[in-house]
Amino acid sequence: MASSAIPSVSLQLEHLRETADLGTRMTQSGTVGVSGLGDRYYARGREFELLKTVPIPLELQQQMQQTRSRFEMGLFPEIAHAWVTIDCDIFMWNYETNDDLAYFDGIQNTIVKISLARPKTGVFQAHVHWVLVVATDAKSRSSLKPCSKLTWKMRL
């Protein structure tokens, strides 16, 4: 008797798997005991609003296709620049005007993180308001950012 029920139960389980929504599939009948999986952990309504889209510069799109090991991208709203790292190269451009693409290829190791930081007063010349910190898989370096948002000059 039990052996005759196996195909029926198997068919029912397969049907449940195919028709269950993602919430049910990830949880036990929609209830969870783990933070982050239930609806109650998320705010209702619009959390983000799309204000503007800016295409990635064409020259950079071509470079992105050549990625060998690591690709990261982000924004530096403090200076209105977007950034992309591809392996050991850094690309930055003004996302407000979608121009002023700058390229820096002087790093020999794969870049794992970049960040902006304010330099300590008196360490650099007065016109330097930002330091670009670059961490690679081998070491960290810093690069200078003059205060003008329209020009990007990097040097080591």
Mind explaining what this structure looks like?
By secondary structure, the chain is an alpha+beta fold. It contains three helices and seven strands. The protein is elongated, with a radius of gyration of 25 Å. The chain folds into two domains: 2-41, no CATH class; 58-146, no CATH class. The termini are far apart. Helices cover 19% and strands 30% of the residues. Strand 6 (128-136) and strand 7 (140-146) form a beta hairpin. It has a four-stranded antiparallel β-sheet, covered by helices on one side. Strands 5-6-7 form a three-stranded antiparallel β-sheet, with no helix packed on it. One of its GO terms (biological process) is protein import into nucleus. It comes from Mesorhabditis belari.
Set down the secondary structure blueprint.
Blueprint lengths: L1 H18 L2 H5 L31 H7 L6 E6 L4 E6 L2 E6 L4 E6 L6 E7 L10 E9 L3 E7 L10
Antiparallel strand pairs: 1-2, 2-3, 3-4, 5-6, 6-7
Q: How many structural units, i.e. domains?
A: 2
Structural class: alpha+beta
Percentage of residues in DSSP E strands? 25-35%
Ranges where pLDDT stays below 50 over 5 or more residues in a row are 144-156
Q: What strand line-up does the widest sheet have? A: 1-2-3-4
Number of strands: 7
